[in-house]
Amino acid sequence: MSIFIIAELGINHNGDLAIAKQLIDLAVSTGCNAVKFQKRTVEKIYTKEFLDSPRESPWGHTQRAQKEGLEFNEYDYVLIDQYCKEVGIEWFASAWDIESQLFLNRFDLKYNKIASAMLTNIELLDIVALERKHTFISTGMSSIEEITRAVNIFRKRDCSFELMHCVSVYPMDDKTANLNCIKTLRDWYDCNVGYSGHESGLAISYAAAALGITSLERHITLDRAMYGSDQAASIEPVGLKQLVGAVRKIEVAMGDGEKRVLDTEKEIAKKLRTVN
Q1: pTM of the model
Q2: Longest dimension (CA), the chain
Q3: Half-sphere exposure (CA, 13 Å, Cβ side) for 151?
Q4: Domains in the chain, please, with CATH?
Q5: Which residues lie below 8 Å from residue 130, measured CB to CB, with a gap of 6+?
Q6: Residue among 6, 3, 25 at smallest CA distance from 222
Q7: Over 60: is that where the pLDDT of 276 sits?
Q8: Percent of the chain with pLDDT over 90
Q9: Which residues contact 267 (CB under 8 A, 6 or more apart)?
Q10: Which of 35, 29, 26 is nearest to 7 (CA)?
Q11: Mean pLDDT over residues 137-159, rounded?
Q12: Where do the H-state alpha helices sit in the chain?
């Protein structure tokens, strides 16, 4: 099974369709399997007090202006849907509230995503599981008990899913990657496990690929110096090309584990094992 590579646009598009299309083009040109967005109903997930509090951003002087500036509207998503179909790549999004999940149902999407922050939202989990679309479930900042509860919901609803090992720090310190947890999750829940990475660099993602993950998600950006909280943990165009290329090589190199003598080795053996 080939690793399903997800280019996470998240909010790195900064609410700009032109930037979003450039990021989609980047994902296509490098061979990613899908692009992913984040969808929020700002009024549903933040309090009025928080939204009215001060924050300087390109969109204004309040948290509300910043949060709303990062969100695409329905017309924007219609254009995104059309564009992804034109360039031949799947798209989906992680919904941060029920209204957003219902909104995403207006589109013919193949996949769902449960963000780590939403793993404890039981009502949202149940609504997503009822759709019975293959769902990627990130496990950052979640206990075994919380993950088990989520897994039970998806199994109860007979909804295909895979867990994604994740450390919810942006950017993540390499020392906290704990990649062996990929095997722990796979053994514990007897399911496919992917990796959603927030580290700087590519080495840890390479290691995850060698551990047999079924999916790999990384945030992408045009330039890490751009405005946004996720930019520092994102991969720029050259890095994404390197990542996808290396992951595909790693898949081939891992092989099937069976010990055999290659025909090309037999010829070498004749030369090197000749008794003088």
Answers
A1: 0.95
A2: 87
A3: 19
A4: 4-272 (3.20.20.70)
A5: 157, 159
A6: 25
A7: no
A8: 95
A9: none
A10: 35
A11: 98
A12: 17-30, 42-45, 48-51, 63-69, 74-87, 98-104, 122-131, 144-156, 181-189, 203-210, 237-254, 263-272
Residue 274 pLDDT: 78
Query: Do strands 34-39 and 90-95 pair parallel, antiparallel, or not at all (unpaired)?
Result: parallel
DSSP-assigned letter for residue 2: -
Q: From CA 87, how far away is CA 91, in angstroms rounded?
A: 11
SS3 letters across 220-251: ECCCCCCCCCCHHHCECHHHHHHHHHHHHHHH
Q: What value, to the nearest 5°, has the Cα angle with vertex 30 and ends 24 and 35? A: 35
CA-to-CA dists, residue 23 to 10, 75, 89, 237, angstroms? 11, 19, 12, 9
Contact yes or no for 111/136 (Cβ under 8 A): yes
CA dihedral 12, 122, 191, 155 (to 10 degrees): -140
**Nearest to 193, CA basis, from 212, 218, 167, 172:** 212
C-alpha pair distances (Å), 256 with each of 1, 107, 253, 260? 12, 39, 9, 11
Residues contacting 60, CB < 8 A, separation 6+: 66, 69
Would you say 60 and 69 are in contact if contact means Cβ atoms under 8 Å apart?
Answer: yes
Residue 123 burial (CB < 10 Å; 0-12/13-18/19+)?
exposed
pLDDT digit string, tens, across residues 68-90: 999 999 999 999 999 999 999 99
Residue type (1 letter), 275? V
pLDDT, the chain, mean: 96
